[in-house]
Specification:
Order of helices and strands of chain A: HHHHHHHHHHHHEEHHHEEHHHEEHHHHE
Number of strands of chain A: 7
Helix content of chain A: 55-70%
Largest sheet of chain A: 3 strands, mixed
Strand content of chain A: 5-15%
Order of helices and strands of chain B: HHEEHHHHHHHEE
Helix content of chain B: 25-40%
Number of helices of chain A: 22
Radius of gyration of chain B: 32 Å
Shape of chain A: elongated
Oligomer: heterodimer
Radius of gyration of chain A: 47 Å
Strand order of the largest sheet of chain A: 5-6-7
Largest interface: A-B, 46 and 48 residues
Number of domains of chain A: 3
Structural class of chain B: mainly alpha
Strand content of chain B: under 5%
Distance between the termini of chain B: 90 Å
Structural class of chain A: mainly alpha
């Protein structure tokens, strides 16, 4: 009977432990509150109360007497054991392996500890008693053998002498190695056997002592088991109470008829604590911080770009948009200006985290333009960024002067190592501004990922309408004069014919047709590149608007150019 | 017997000392010590961290939980009622009278989790609940009854595919999703034929064969295709010459609108078309 009970109980305890360890592989946070989870939880808790009933019956004499008339105490104990293991198994299932709250974790831990303490007390302790009984019997046998041996030895003085010589403190531990096999065969008990017996006696005595110590400890198991169980019941009560107090989900199918207005009237708005934003930012992952910094850069750069942008003026006979570099240079010296904030944001940019190609492309183009303006503004007053004041070696583009995260970039790095090889888009070379009169006119807004494609096309189309720096077509002599950029970056376009094809995409249909027809006969020439800074201070005559006026209002996207309205020809669509 | 008495004395002594120490600790520590706050103890029962947006309510269980009844919609609405952009957006305006929150908005899922888990069945059930009326002759109750009958007696074969459940068929997809219909109404309003609520494409739907020429039955060309330059230039750039815009199949393939015959995924030539 007891053997079977033990086997079943062991199996159930092992099952419980396996169920608990299951949290490593499975979690179902919503299960505990679902109807089935609830049924498991309530049933498990009820079963866990059965052991408490046993405790009460056992302690109260008249109750015990009354009940044992019908059910023997032994059966009650069996109920105690089975209910005390199956209950915890059910509540472990109920938990759905969601061990989140401190109370839940403590409750689960106490359940398992209570079961294990009960199990150990009931089955391991009897093991110890059994062990001690067996060892005591063995000890008695050994002692008898020893008695016999010592009597025999007393009759053989020679051998007794041998043993006596080995009784020294140091020799004793190795005595059995020094003695040879008892050779004479007549007497069964030689010196070697006697020594071995005495060693065995010492071993068994020690083992018994250890076992008894353990047994004493485990004698206290019942008290421990009761204390643990009481803590468990307290936690269980708390758990049930909080589950009810914070709202059970099982009965939640009644409609909550709360049209908005009525609910509003019923509950006035409570004052909400404002979450500390600093902690939210601090906890944000690196990637997020970087993309935020990227946006921040675009915002500040965009502001200061638009603020200093001025409508086209004429410099050295060439019409060009300009910037108010005097104001711009002043801004570089202030710590809280948009310029400084943009620069600050850049140091937090991790240039590997972009959301899509367009965002990356727009960022690097804007960064290049920012860098070109930075070169001029920081060394202002200058006439050109090729001035020795900017770079003594005459190579302003090779100067590493933009700090991104922990690396410094130069303009030519941005253009030749990142933008062109990565995107292979020849339109890029028009978008990166060399801060010079002969460069394509920039719209009043910086490039944005969403409108990048249109912005680039518009930029080139507008550029090619400028007969002084973009494109001039002499139909009589069949000479096409193009911007110096086509020459400098010829490898991006290919042969002369490819350049013409490229140009034809951005000019009015009629011109495009003419270009195609005369593709082979055309001779290509290129404008002289004027490196003069596109600074409003360089403007000739009174073509410039007063610099204290803000830049003209305009919408981002298409049609940014005051002078480019004729560029998209009216007949483009009705051919 | 004497031993038993002694051990009883001992245990009483231990209990007395423990209680005494606890009382002393309580008296000695300042009044605002953490363990004297109800919040500290309440927090131990928290089944998981709140989402970042609600983090400020972490110590204030009563902000959402009404004792015994639990997390009530009224407590959510108290703060979220004046979310105008939510209520003025067609896709989300149903929140105005849905009257319940926790079916789809779960909390205590961890700090970095959003509180949204859209459950279309729950939405349908909420709608049915609202139709419920004590007056059996009322309009809403009759509608509810007819829905109930429909759900009860609808044969499995009437479901377009097994990814859709009966309750979801009660919902009118366009009420919320009209603005995001990329078919601009061309495919009708029986979305469940091709879509499910938990995924966009379903393997049950099979496109007509690639050799089919009736694309225009469902597909509509974008405005750019009706511009004069389209026939003269764009189509020719691909080396194709469709007779009319309705001959989609001359250039396009069924794998995707920008998978063009003979042009592969030629990004550069299509650079004026915004990538999706």
């Amino acid at each position: 009977m007891k053997e079977r009970e033990k086997t079943v109980a062991t199996g159930l305890v092992v099952l419980m432990l396996i169920l608990w360890i299951g949290f490593l592989f499975h979690r179902s946070p919503r299960f505990a509150g679902s109807p089935w989870g609830g049924i498991l939880g309530v049933t498990g808790a009820m079963l866990m109360l059965v052991p408490l009933a046993y405790l009460v019956v056992k302690r109260i004499k008249w109750l015990k007497k009354a009940i044992t008339n019908y059910v023997p105490m032994r059966t009650l104990l069996a109920w105690h054991i089975y209910a005390g293991i199956i209950g915890p198994i059910l509540v472990l299932l109920h938990s759905g392996h969601k061990f989140e709250s401190l109370l839940g974790i403590a409750l689960t831990a106490m359940t398992i500890i209570a079961v294990i303490s009960g199990f150990v007390g009931r089955y391991m302790m009897s093991q110890f008693s059994q062990g001690i009984r067996e060892k005591k019997a063995m000890l008695t046998e050994l002692q008898a053998a020893y008695q016999r041996a010592s009597v025999e030895l007393a009759q053989q003085p020679a051998q007794a002498k041998t043993i006596r010589s080995l009784s020294g403190f140091l020799v004793r531990p190795i005595a059995s190695f020094l003695l040879t096999e008892d050779a004479d065969g007549k007497t069964a008990l030689g010196p070697r056997t006697v020594i071995q017996i005495s060693e065995s006696i010492a071993d068994v005595e020690y083992a018994i002592k250890t076992h008894e110590t353990f047994k004493q400890w485990f004698n206290k198991w019942l008290k421990l088991h009761i204390v643990i169980s009481f803590i468990l019941y307290i936690l269980l009560a708390l758990h049930v109470w909080t589950a009810i107090y914070f709202g059970l989900r099982w009965f939640d199918t009644q409609p909550q008829d709360i049209p908005l207005q009525r609910a509003l009237a019923a509950s006035p708005l409570p004052a909400l604590p404002v979450p500390p934003t600093s902690t939210i930012v601090a906890s944000a992952p690196n990637e997020k911080a970087s993309s935020e910094a990227t946006e921040e850069f675009s915002r500040y750069f965009g502001d200061f770009f638009t603020r200093h942008w001025r409508a086209p003026v004429t410099i050295h006979g060439v019409q060009t948009i300009v910037f108010d570099y005097t104001a711009l240079a002043a801004e570089t010296k202030q710590n809280d200006s948009d310029y400084s904030k943009a620069l600050g944001a850049l140091t937090r940019v991790e240039p590997t985290t972009f959301e899509g190609d367009d965002q990356e492309k727009a960022f690097w183009i804007n960064l290049y333009n920012f860098g070109a303006m930075k070169l001029a503004a920081e060394n202002y007053p200058v006439d050109s960024i090729t001035s020795p004041k900017v770079s003594e070696a005459g190579d302003p583009w090779g100067k590493k002067m933009i700090q991104l995260g922990d690396a410094a970039y130069s303009l030519s790095q941005i253009e030749k190592e990142i933008l062109v090889p990565k995107f292979g888009d020849p339109r890029i070379v028009f978008a990166v501004s060399c801060a010079a009169v002969s460069c394509p006119d920039r719209p009043q807004y910086i490039f944005a990922p969403k409108t990048l494609n249109t912005q680039l096309d518009d930029l080139i189309a507008a550029f090619l309408t400028n007969p002084k720096k973009g494109m001039r077509l002499d139909r009589e002599n069949k000479v096409l004069t193009l911007s110096w950029i086509f020459k400098a970056d010829k490898h991006l376009f290919g042969e002369d014919g490819d350049i013409i094809d490229f140009v034809a995409r951005y000019v009015p249909d009629e011109t495009a047709r003419w270009l195609k027809e005369n593709r082979t006969a055309l001779r290509l020439e290129f404008f002289e590149h004027d490196w003069t800074l596109n600074d409003i201070a360089q403007a000739e005559g009174q073509a410039s608007p007063p610099s204290e006026n803000p830049a003209p209002e305009s919408t981002p996207g298409r049609g940014l150019y005051p002078q480019s309205k004729a560029v998209i020809p009216a007949n483009a669509g009705n051919q | 017997m004497a031993k038993k008495k002694k051990s009883k004395k001992k245990s009483i002594l231990i209990t007395a000392i423990t209680i005494g120490v606890l009382i002393v600790v309580w008296l000695v520590t300042p009044g605002d010590a953490a363990f004297k706050q109800v919040n500290t103890w309440q927090r131990m029962t928290s089944p998981g961290a709140l989402s970042a947006a609600h983090a400020s309510l972490e110590n204030n269980c009563a902000a959402c939980h009404t004792p015994v009844t639990g997390a009530e919609a009224a407590n959510c609405i108290a703060c979220h009622a004046n979310d105008k952009s939510l209520l003025q957006n067609q896709a989300t305006s149903f929140h105005a009278n849905v009257g319940s929150c926790k079916e789809c908005h779960l909390e205590h899922q961890g700090r970095d989790q959003r509180t949204l888990e859209m459950d279309h069945v729950a939405l349908a059930e909420l709608g049915l609940r609202q139709l419920k009326s004590n007056d059996p002759d009322s309009e809403s109750e009759r509608v509810r009854q007819s829905f109930a009958v429909l759900m009860k007696h609808m044969p499995d074969a009437a479901l377009p595919h097994s990814r859709v459940v009966r309750e979801e068929l009660l919902l009118n997809c366009t009420t919320c999703h009209e603005t995001e219909d990329p078919h601009v109404g061309y495919f009708g309003d029986n979305c469940a034929t091709c879509h499910a609520t938990n995924r966009w494409n379903i393997p049950e739907y099979i496109h007509p064969p690639a050799a089919s020429l009736d694309c225009v039955q469902c597909h509509k060309a974008p405005p750019s295709h009706y511009m004069p330059m389209f026939m003269s230039m764009c189509a020719k750039m691909l080396g194709k010459s469709p007779k009319s815009v309705s001959q989609c199949y001359v250039c396009h393939m069924i794998t995707g609108w920008n998978d063009m015959k003979g042009a592969a995924w030629h990004k550069k030539s299509m650079s004026h078309i915004p990538s999706r």
